[in-house]
Structures are given as C-alpha cells and as structure tokens.
Design goal:
Largest sheet: 8 strands, mixed
Mean pLDDT: 93
Order of helices and strands: EEEEHEHEEHEEHEEEEEEEEEEHHH
Number of strands: 19
Number of helices: 7
C-alpha cells in the first residue's frame, strides 16, 4: 500500500479483500499500509472495517451493480445497520445498477456510490470512473477520500453531471421544515465526439420527479425548479445517452426539522421484508467457492473451517441486524 504522485496525478493503492461467494467482495482504499487478512477474520467484515478505519482507510462493497452477485445483498443487509460500509460500487462493465442502492437509501442508509472497471477481469482501466468534489486548495488526495466518504461523488463513463439543492451538492444533509420549497438545479453534458445525451432526470426516493430531453445552445441539459418538501427524502440526478453514455450523482439527503432520518416510511415494510429475506439466505448459505484458485493463499479446508467457526457469531450479528430493522420499522 502507498501513494505515488507525478505532476497533478496521484496513484493510491488499495485491496480487493476479502473475496468470497458466501459474503461478497470488499474494497479497501486509502489504507496507510497493507491490511493482512487471516482465516480468523475472513468472514468478519466488521473486523476488516475496524482494521481499515484504524489505518485511515475506507471499506466498500464491490459489485453491488449486480443485485446478488457473491451474496452482495445479504452482505448489505447484514452490515449496513452497523456502519461498516463506507461506499458501494454501482457502475461496472457499462452497467449502472441502482436497485440495491436505492433500496438501502430508502431505508435511510447513507451510502456513497463508486464505479470500477474491475480490470483485468474483462474491462479496460478507467472505463467507469468516480469523481469526487473537493474544495479549492484542498490537501489531495486526502481530501478526495474524505469527500468520497461524505458522499460527494459522481459515477460516469463520459458525461459530466452536476446537482445542487439549495446550493448544496451530493452528500449534503438539508434540514428544512415541512412545506418548505427547495431549489433544485442540475445540468449534464457530453463531449459530442462521444455521442449525445438523451435525457437528464431528478430522482427522489427512486421516482423520477423531473426530466428534460432538449439541450440548450451550449449543449447542456438543464433542470431548474422548486420542489415542496413533504417528508424526509433523498434526491439525485442521472443522465444517459446513446452508445451507453451514463452518469449518476450521489444523493442529497433531506431530513425534516425535528426528525432524525430521511427514510421513505411508506417503503419501509416491503424493503425490510426483503432485507430479512436476504438474511435468511445468508443463514442457509453453505461454503461453495472455497476451491477457487483466487483463494489459493488459503486452503479450502482452512476457509471451510473458518466459515463454520463463524456460524454462531454470524447468527448473533444477523439477530442484531434484524433488531435494527424492527426498530426503524416501528419508530
């Protein structure tokens, strides 16, 4: 692990570990040194998170772009209640997968979106990217990672997209009174050499509330309107064009004055039922990927034993996650 810089470019190493079909693939970034992972904590994302955070790093969940690759939905349902996850990867191989991200946003979890090309497993480096807004004169790359943790991110494979609500961008928390009106502005553009954008949308709690399809003279798609606040919510902007051009902002969170959450209360019952179903699948999960050559640094027997030894701890953590969901459902 480490950092290298030349001119205005930084190269910051990270790790994709641990990796399993039983409990997802995890991403460690901005850690000051390599984090050693043993069979004892291979299936303990919370322990990996603690090691990572102690070294100034962040822990994210890979491949969330696909709803249940490597049991990723179960990993989200298990760890989101405990604040283990700093970011999730929603854009990869030309596919923007927002279903799980939207579900967990609607339950009130602040999760920063990222993108990854997963090179060398079938793509080219940098095809999908994550950009983070930093303040002028900020200490880079530290400020970049801080901004990512705050949710000030945009994922894209070409388009540039911006979003503001009352002058605040992605990652911001607004605390208006019920009935207040929020000024929402967004714009998107794409280098014409790479195609043309087809639309720009504002999404609130997963539902499109505004869209535009005609660009101005400068080639920008723009949205500017006021929106009345009636409940807690999250909002984001997204755009798409021909030839697969896609971009999505991180979320802006709206928590009504006097409340503590932006969760969409109307959607909580089915979403919590879905999260509990994912935890049920985790309870039934048997070790299945342990002979994969990518895990050659541990033997199949070692990992199988680790999975079985974790059973009681896993049961307790699942019970604690269920209790959390029950609490927010009845709040």
């Amino acid at each position: 692990s480490g950092r290298s810089t030349q001119l205005d470019t930084w190269l910051v190493s990270g790790q994709e570990a641990p990796r399993s079909a039983e409990l997802a693939h995890w991403l460690i970034v901005n850690n000051e040194q390599h984090i050693a992972i043993s069979t004892e904590d291979y299936f303990q994302p919370d322990a990996i998170a603690q090691k990572t955070h102690d070294l100034g790093g962040m822990l994210g969940l890979a491949h969330v772009v696909w709803d249940n690759m490597y049991n990723v939905e179960a990993a989200l349902a298990l760890e989101a209640p405990f604040g283990t996850i700093d970011f999730i990867e929603i854009f990869q191989f030309g596919h923007l997968g927002t279903a799980l991200w939207y579900d967990f946003l609607n339950m009130g979890f602040m999760l920063a979106p990222t993108a990854g090309s997963d090179f060398p497993w079938g793509d080219v480096p940098g095809r999908e990217r994550v950009y983070v807004q930093t303040d002028p004169g900020a200490d880079l790359p530290t400020a970049w990672f801080q901004g990512l943790k705050q949710g000030r991110s945009v994922v894209t494979n070409g388009p540039i997209i911006r979003l503001e609500a009352n002058g605040e961008g992605p990652g911001a928390v607004l605390k208006p009174k019920k009935g207040d009106r929020i000024i929402i502005t967004a714009k998107a553009a794409l280098n014409p050499d790479y195609g043309k954008l087809e639309n720009l949308e504002i999404v609130v709690n997963g539902t499109v509330i505004a869209d535009v399809r005609k660009s101005d003279e400068q080639g920008y798609l723009k949205i500017d309107f006021t929106w009345p606040v009636t409940s807690g919510a999250w909002l984001a902007a997204r755009t798409k064009g021909n030839q697969g051009a896609t971009a999505h902002t991180g979320a802006i969170y709206i928590i009504l004055e006097g409340e503590t959450s932006f969760a969409d209360k109307s959607k909580l019952p089915p979403l919590i039922k879905k999260a509990n179903a994912a935890l049920d699948r985790l309870l039934r999960t048997e070790a299945s990927w342990l002979n994969n050559p990518e895990n050659s640094h541990f033997s199949k027997e070692q990992l199988k034993q680790a999975w079985e030894q974790e059973k009681q701890r896993r049961l307790e953590r699942i019970a604690a996650a269920r209790a959390f969901y029950e609490k927010i459902l009845n709040k």
